[in-house]
Amino acid sequence: MPATYEPIATTTLGSNAATIDFTSISSAYTDLRLVLVWRSNQSGSSANVLVRVNSDSGSNYSVTQLNGDGSSASSFRATSATSLNMAYISSTESTNFGLVTLDFMSYAGSTNKTILGTNSYDRNGSGYVQRTVGLWRSTSAITSVNLLLNSTTNYVTGTTATLYGILKA
Prior knowledge:
single chain; 169 residues; mainly beta; Jelly Rolls; 8-stranded antiparallel beta sheet; 4-stranded antiparallel beta sheet
């Protein structure tokens, strides 16, 4: 990472877990970047990485996504959601880890918060990419980030998440 990126915390799962949480985030940076290398234990269904900020489960989130796999494209939009659907992995991808980056812009500022996401994974010879823009409609500083999965799905052992603070972005 560039010299302006400072690692704040890293979590590597030693066993399956339903959530990954970063708490007590300092306001000392201009932006945040979260890097997630993940796989889920879904069986016959897709998994979605859902993001909640400051444990807010109110209808304060909006998200727009563009998705593609080289042969087809799709999009998704949600408003007044209770979390941000920031990444997806299909039910056929249970053996491959995906890479997600989430950028939290001006996370300590007093305006609504924009979160940009990228999601990519290999499909054993082909690929899948997803680009997402999310909005958390709150003027509170971000002090915690919760990475949840839909349904009863868990992150598997070996999933790694690192939160970076960005200085002078």
